Hints:
Strand order of the largest sheet: 1-2-3-4-5-6-7-8
Helix content: 40-55%
Structural class: alpha/beta
Number of helices: 10
Distance between the termini: 23 Å
CATH topology of the domain at 8-184 and 216-221: TIM Barrel
CATH superfamily of the domain at 8-184 and 216-221: NADP-dependent oxidoreductase domain
Number of strands: 8
Radius of gyration: 18 Å
Amino acid sequence: MTIPSFGVGTFRLTGQTAIDSVRNALDVGYRAVDTAQIYGNEAEVGLAIAQSGVARGDLFLTTKIWTANYAADKLVPSLRESLDKLRTDHVDLTLIHWPAPGNGVALPAYMAALAEAKALGLTRQIGISNFNIALTREAIGAVGAGEIATNQIELSPYLQNRALTAFLQAQGIAVTSYMTLAYGKVLKDPVLARIADKHHATVAQVALAWALQLGYAVIPSSTRRENLSSNLLARGLRLDADDMAQIATLERNGREVSPEGLAPVWD
């Protein structure tokens, strides 16, 4: 995998809440942070990193380009603005946030602009987010095989997306799972609760361990330091074949995020 398997997400976190979450995450051992232009918290993330005392070289920082900045004359300047907010001269990974079909900028054009950002040294790796199989194929065609580091997609025990994840792994593209806890809905699942009891773990740890064992990266978020610490323990939890088989039965196409005009036709 070309990206860390465990990071902290910052979706829906703003102001002091975002600063505190990132500071706490770094303090308890996270070394990968995921943000985005549309989150409106890049400056807070940058401040938290600056205050943390963790060396920039020890961090893996991801941001995402918003749809308004896909045009060839906007993408690179917008990323430079993101870097200013993040207090760094580069990010480790930059993603196209949504395919946004029909927004006026063709996929080959915005992928070419993203590749230019990499060529300029503004980002070490490039990738995509919320792309289906067909659009991922098109993105590969635009920038070349091996150039797309990851596709960050919604995945949880309730949305297992097997066709897309199998395609990505066959292409050598890392799968990054967001919304792995399905907005907290999986935390009440009785199957997961039984597995958690069996391992003396939390349900969140079980869900995250499930994703990790399938080879996905995860970026859970929390405003609570104790939850950030607890989630990290998923890295040491090994689910057995029976556990994984039980979780496989939980698939229900339980998608939480699919904004009109931004999302593709899902696989």
